[in-house]
Amino acid sequence: MKLTIYTLINYSTFFKFGIKKMKKIMIPANKVQSEFSVKKSRFISMVFPVENDMEVRSKLKELRVEHPSSRHVVWSYVLGDAGTLYGLSDDGEPHGTAGRPALEVLKGSGLTYVALFVIRYFGGTKLGTGGLVSAYTQAAQDVLALVNSVEKIEYSKYSLSCSYAQYEGVKAILLENKALDCVEDFSEGVTISGKVPRRNIEDCRRDVKNFSQGSIEINIVEEE
Q: pTM for this one?
């Protein structure tokens, strides 16, 4: 017999284990855009959620097609769960005056898996090194101020088997570790499968092992 868990239980009477808090992975919820002008040069800023650098380059190609008359399409990105993978381009602007200041603002936003593009339509007046740094910094700040961020959660699918006596305690641990889509199969023992946030899986394994005194193993079936 299979039963899907739909309701939470009060597990305060069961074992409570400390869960290590890990930094949340925050990403932009969707595309946002802003625009301003300096000495007749238009700066159009866009932020996109992206998964990898190939997606960044694909977006860049699309923007060049959409804005064929623009002088520059400056870009920067931050990738990786820890937000430690970076990329940038000045796209013809003087070195260090465009992509770098935009990237520094982007890094300070706390977002990852994010790409920032600044499209410049030249207005006929050169801004100088300081003016360019100021303009691209403002372009990044303005568009990032419009971003709604959401948490990126990656899951590991798991399965485990336990006895009827262990069932309530195991279920409490799974729920405390934010397990979802739990399916239970009751036969000679209990088999439970579902998915747990990847950042919680090691804590979940430890808690289940401690609770069961090593008799229960959580098997990872698939990453998603």
A: 0.72
